[in-house]
Design brief:
Two copies of one chain form a homodimer.
Chain A: H1 12-16, H2 19-26, E1 30-34, E2 39-41, E3 49-55, E4 58-63, E5 69-75, E6 80-81, E7 95-98, E8 102-108, H3 109-118, H4 120-146, H5 149-164, E9 168-170, H6 173-180, H7 184-196, E10 200-202, E11 206-209, H8 212-218, H9 221-233
Antiparallel strand pairs in A: 1-8, 2-7, 3-6, 3-8, 4-5, 4-7, 9-11, 10-11
The first copy, chain A, binds a DNA duplex through residues 148-149, 172-174, 182-186, 188-189, 191-192, 202-205.
Chain lengths: 247, 247
DNA sequence: GCGCATATGTCCGGTATCGTACAAAGCGCG
DNA sequence: CGCGCTTTGTACGATACCGGACATATGCGC
């Protein structure tokens, strides 16, 4: 096991830490590869590990009793899956699942709590990240109730784009339908509209974002509201034009 | 300004504190009365005060750009409105508004942060409360997407009942419709069904819960999932039969 | 007790999405 | 190169809710 080097780390929380605090974490971090569909936490189970995401993205899902999962938030290299342990949670209320290939640094939950108590910048950053994630979930609650699927799809694709960092995503409409809690054929119609408008392109499990601005126009306000919070988390000015891809 | 006496305080967080930590807060607490429709925080504004709710309940609302508010969570005597300041938030992402008459202890946000840093039990409790509130919001996100209005209405009435502590609530269907993000006439139909089933009774702005068990049966799983989390927050056994009213 | 504002019940056509089914198209693997 | 699985497009009636309107009922002030 070799220690990660901070300059080479892509997770934005780890990268933002003072070197002294990063050093406290480094020994506990294990690099892991994430495969599509892999569960990092199961709803109701103990949270034994947390994951600082390096690439790809993770979905946090609430499991309803009829067996249907529904996405409540996305976690990319700006975040940590399982961060609720620092609020004192022991069990995961949500399922966290990798929706792409990707990588992460895994760390035991108890080690994180340990270091968190001794590293004030880490503590601040994790609490602020927790808050921003909460804002994302709250916006999703409102969005689910009010906005049409076309807008929600565009919002989701933008969020996925931001977190993955590449315009070409390996995603089936089936998967997206589960995330958004709608039928696949409904996604097919909405995606077809976006495709005919020339903002995205589909090819059998691959979706390419052709016109990012067009996609932003098709999305509801919820995308921008949440993206602004995430930008503020890392100290970027919220009223500047956003970079092409925020992470 | 007279200091509150802990034994007389009804807010469950304040009541659960060790006397020494309560003493640190007591000087900063001002008793305030809340009137129906009163805003405690406005979306986007600085959070200058937090409110330990004593009676009645508060709605946390996301304001969508079309001007329509949508409720994401309820806060009663088990909680604090504005608690996100302890995560480092400066601005409120949501509107918090009193939906009933009621009372609360107000405290400046900066004083809370101050005391929070010196009072470990308070800190723990506030973080755990934050987490449980987050679970509530997440469940709401899934519920908004999947469950029918009849179930959501029953869930909401149960949550309101828990937080107000009395079976008779002063609530119009109009108000409930805004909270749930649906049209009033849709609420009228769903409420009529519940009334004909004999679980609630309506009378011009007053709604009485007649058959609490019947209402629980009419609600979706989301009520019980969240109530279990709140019970655990104050150390009650989640697998025991719930008291008639949890707060 | 009467009038009026407020609250609730109900009706209409319209639409987004459901639930299910089936057909067509793309890619992987032999 | 073609078979088969996966992915996508599309059709169909059913339904929950919308958006707006109107009628009725309740309670409050006078």
């Amino acid at each position: 096991m070799h220690r990660p080097i901070q300059a080479a780390v892509r997770n934005r929380i780890l990268a933002a830490l003072p070197a002294a605090e990063f050093a406290l974490l480094a020994d506990h971090l294990t690099r892991v590869e994430l495969t599509l569909g892999e569960s990092l936490h199961r709803a109701g189970d103990k949270i034994t590990s947390v994951f600082f995401v390096e690439s790809g993205f993770i979905s946090a899902l609430t499991m309803l009793s009829d067996g249907q999962p529904l996405e409540i938030g996305l976690i990319g290299s700006e975040g940590v899956a399982g961060v609720s342990v620092i609020l004192g949670a022991t069990d995961s209320y949500s399922e966290t699942m990798c929706q792409t290939g990707g990588g992460a640094y895994r760390m035991s939950a108890s080690a994180l709590k340990d270091v968190d108590a001794r590293a004030p910048h880490l503590h601040d950053l994790l609490l602020r990240y927790t808050h921003v994630f909460h804002v994302q979930v709250a916006q999703t609650a409102a969005c689910n109730a009010h906005h049409e699927l076309g807008q929600r799809l565009a919002r989701w694709l933008l969020a996925a784009h931001d977190r993955s960092g590449v315009p070409e995503l390996s995603l089936t409409q089936d998967l997206i339908a589960v995330m958004l809690g709608v039928r696949r054929s409904t996604v097919s119609i909405a995606a077809g509209t976006l495709q005919r408008a020339g903002v995205i392109r589909y090819q059998h499990g691959k979706i390419t974002i052709v016109d990012r601005v067009g996609l932003e126009n098709a999305a509801c306000e919820c995308y921008e509201a949440v993206a602004t919070e995430y930008r503020a988390l890392f100290g970027e000015y919220p009223d500047r034009p956003p970079p092409a891809v925020f992470p």
